[in-house]
Extracellular solute-binding protein (marine metagenome), 136 residues
Amino acid sequence: MDIGKIILKLCLLISFSFFSANVFAKTTVTWWAEANADRDPVFQAKLVDVFNASQNEIELKMEFKEALNDVLRTAMIAGEGPDIVETPGPSYVKEYQEAGLLSSMENYSKQYGWEELLLPWSYSAGVFDGEFYSAP
């Protein structure tokens, strides 16, 4: 076999590998939570593993962090925070929202009817500047 055919086959193989990896790749969603020795295995088994087994499009990765608030604030300011944020409450969400570190979930809220699904106090606790940012 000549070198031209080998190079052509190699290029085709690399191209196919590149494109097929992108077509079939799962989207990874990261969720950081405060580390808790009692809760962590339960969250992993009952939430993360069940969700991941239920579908093939999204892989949920939960990371348990010590001193989450400190680690989270630093990571978010650096643009390296998780996709899903756990906070102690609305005052933390407001701080992150005012700093431009969170994305509004208003469109998802409307699309999936979250205002009707959540108790009024629960929904309103996550609304800042007229848009939905968090749920307790």
